[in-house]
Design the sequence.
């Protein structure tokens, strides 16, 4: 599903060069849950951003379901993200002028799937336990509620790959546990491949594999489960309409 080969990312500031990623090799199987851990500055979020096509690597290759992300232009990347990827940001990134329902509908409308957008958005908001909040704006929601809307939005387009950057990082432990439970519940139901960056050991323990980064390199990997857990009855996200 995800194949990363000899991936590097170097940033230049004046006369100085900083090697953020140094030859990353990583394979993630379909429906696998992989947690990426490491100290601040180890390159975790940079790796996730490269997988999403938000930035370009200095060298190396990224293939998502056989598609060479590193060879795509911006228009091709936008189409790929709309069809295949969901992303959960630590800072929620909800549009403040849209209601919870409208925020969740947006990915579907952008890819021309507006006919079922409202019904699926409300079903997803119900799945993340916000059935009465669909008409509320982000400013009217707590941080935990905003992150739950962000989860619903990330799954709205039935992505085959979900990327999450510190999805519980801005939440207190009790609220983070609720969001974590919902993330894994939705992921099992939708049958996605999940890669998440986290400092939360509770989250990492629920992954199939934990990958450790330090100084831009993978220094260790721990397999917690021999094979991806069964997530739903179908073979992919498209088989799981909420």
Sequence:
């Amino acid at each position: 599903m995800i194949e990363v080969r000899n991936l590097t990312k170097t940033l230049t500031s004046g006369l100085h060069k900083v090697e953020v990623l140094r030859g990353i090799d990583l394979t993630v199987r379909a429906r696998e849950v992989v947690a990426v851990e490491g100290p601040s500055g180890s390159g975790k979020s940079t790796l996730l951003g490269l997988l999403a096509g938000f930035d370009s690597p200095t060298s190396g290759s990224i293939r998502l379901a056989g598609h060479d992300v590193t060879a795509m232009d911006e228009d091709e990347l936008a189409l790929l993200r709309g069809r295949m990827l969901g992303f959960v940001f630590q800072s929620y990134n909800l549009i403040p002028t849209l209601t919870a329902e409208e925020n969740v509908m947006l990915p579907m409308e952008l890819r021309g799937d507006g006919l079922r957008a409202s019904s699926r958005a409300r079903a997803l908001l119900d799945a993340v336990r916000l059935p009465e909040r669909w008409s509320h704006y982000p400013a009217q929601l707590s941080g935990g509620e905003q992150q739950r809307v962000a989860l619903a939005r990330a799954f709205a387009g039935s992505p085959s790959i979900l990327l999450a950057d510190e999805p519980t990082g801005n939440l207190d432990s009790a609220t983070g546990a609720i969001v974590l439970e919902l993330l894994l519940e939705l992921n099992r139901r939708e049958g996605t491949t999940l890669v998440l960056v986290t400092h939360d050991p509770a989250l990492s323990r629920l992954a199939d594999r934990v990958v450790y980064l330090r100084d831009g390199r993978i220094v260790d990997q721990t397999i917690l489960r021999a094979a991806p857990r069964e997530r739903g009855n179908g073979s992919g996200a498209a088989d799981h309409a909420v």
